[in-house]
Specification:
This protein has about 425 residues and is mainly beta. It is about 10% helix and about 55% strand. It has six helices and 24 strands. It has helices at about 5-10, 10-15, 20-25, 100-105, 315-320, 330-335; strands spanning about 15-20, 30-45, 45-50, 60, 65-75, 80, 85-100, 115-120, 125-130, 135-140, 150-160, 165-175, 185, 195-205, 210-220, 225-240, 245-260, 270-280, 285-295, 335-350, 355-365, 380-390, 395-405, 415-425. The chain has an 18-stranded antiparallel barrel. The protein has a two-stranded parallel ribbon with strand order 1-6. The chain has a two-stranded antiparallel sheet with strand order 3-4. Strand 11 and strand 12 form a beta hairpin. The two termini are about 30 Å apart.
């Protein structure tokens, strides 16, 4: 079986290729979820924004909260010969909006004056797959350590050469459409964002984070704004081929070279180095890691978000993350200059995998920027993140997220955020 089939996880293609259009349309997969979701954040600073990059993405840190109802509706067809399509929508309405808390996370994509109400097009695409080549066009979430937003664009992957995946991405807009955050989709300059990459699979099954060896290289760029290049290495093995103990090591280095005459470029060239060791026993996995960046922080390496994706499975992305603070946290390492993050993280799965718990704690030592921390130097920010997912039944589950930054002194805000809710999926 081809490597690309494992990489994509598209076993439905092998068993669900239909010869008539009606069969493909009627034998697809629906995605429906109803979420009652609340969020509260408090800060020792009155209020303030921090920016993720120079393209206008920002977050409000203040004393605010909300209770939100969200409905997601999507459908992915079966494959009609080699092609399938998907469409999805999400709508959200706020019941309680303390100090306009929902405006922090939910923006109306219809660009009217409604506060706390949002509706947006989610993952919607056309995909071609023939066993060696996959092409996806539309709005979707790429599987990438460097993209944790939805993009409007094209994704091409090819696995014709044994053990080698070749991919290319072009993105024009980016944003998020999820139960916890809905943002306007923003343009990535006039020409868009480009990515090319190679992943060579040395051993094991692609996608098996606990028993595989791979090396990859990539470059992403916006012409005339910046260009990046980097490489990553992953090694994982089970002790004596058993299923009780396993360990892994990850190492990566990337550089961003900025066009200092462009308003969307950072002032300095920069880099991002990351390494981590993970060990697991049965249903408990723990990791230790270190991340460092340069004079411009993550620079445009972080333009689409370094970490896990908004639509991806947390049980896999936890291991693939370059930095561990999930989606909403990690502000110091994302924004600080000359930052050094030391962290520990773990995943615990119990009750036949019904309860999954993720924890991360770290300390970031960094210098401030005009985006976060001002001109202060030698800042330390400590952060705790916890995420719990509990499957009540096969269709009903609960989610809780906790994020706390503390002991940050006077230069950066210390904040506490708790959010969560109940999700019904069918």
């Amino acid at each position: 079986m081809r490597l690309l089939i494992f990489f994509l996880g598209l076993t439905s293609f092998v068993f669900g290729q239909y010869k008539t259009l009606d069969s493909a349309l009627l034998n697809g997969t629906k995605q429906v979820d109803i979420v009652l979701y609340g969020n509260y954040i408090s800060s020792d600073k009155a209020s303030g924004f921090y920016k993720n990059n120079l393209y206008g993405s920002n977050k409000l840190i203040s004393n605010a909260g909300f209770i939100n109802a969200s409905v997601g509706l999507g459908y992915t067809t079966g494959f009609y010969y080699n092609t399938r399509a998907a469409i999805s929508f999400r709508a959200a309405q706020t019941f309680l909006n303390y100090n306009y808390g929902s405006k922090k996370d939910f923006y109306n994509n219809l660009y009217d004056n409604s506060i706390g109400s949002s509706i947006a097009l989610g993952e919607s695409f056309i995909e071609y797959f023939d066993g060696d080549t996959a092409i996806k066009a539309g709005r979707f979430q790429p599987i990438s350590e460097w993209v944790n937003h939805l993009i409007d664009g094209i994704w091409l992957r090819n696995g014709s050469i044994r053990n080698l995946i070749i991919e290319a991405i072009w993105a024009y807009n980016y944003g998020r459409v999820s139960y916890y955050e809905m943002t306007p989709f923003r343009q990535l300059d006039k020409t868009g964002w480009f990515n090319v990459g190679l992943r060579y699979h040395i051993h094991g099954v692609e996608g098996d984070v606990k028993n595989s060896i791979s090396i990859s290289g990539f470059s992403n760029f916006i012409p005339g704004v910046f260009i990046t290049a980097g490489t990553r290495f992953h090694f994982a093995s089970r002790f004596n081929g058993g299923n009780l103990w396993w360990f892994s090591g990850d190492l990566g280095i990337a550089g961003s070279f900025e066009d200092h005459n462009n308003i969307h470029s950072f002032y300095d060239n920069t880099f991002l180095f990351d390494s981590k060791l993970t060990i697991g026993y049965k249903n408990i996995d723990a990791m230790l890691g270190y991340v460092a960046n340069g004079d411009a922080g993550m620079g445009n390496l972080g333009i689409l978000g370094v970490g896990n994706g908004t639509q991806t499975d947390m049980s896999r992305s936890f291991y693939a993350n370059i930095q561990p603070f999930f989606i909403w946290g990690g502000r110091a390492i994302k924004m600080g200059r000359n930052a050094h993050l030391i962290y520990a993280a773990s995943r615990i799965s119990i009750l036949d995998n019904k309860l999954n718990m993720y924890f991360a704690y770290g300390a970031t030592f960094f210098n401030g920027t005009r985006y976060y921390g001002g001109n202060a130097r030698g800042i330390v920010q400590n952060e705790l993140n916890a995420m719990l997912e509990f499957g009540i039944t096969q269709t009903l589950s609960s989610i809780v997220h906790i994020s706390s930054t503390h002991l940050g002194g006077t230069s950066v805000p210390n904040s506490f955020e708790i959010n969560g809710g109940v999700r019904f999926m069918f």
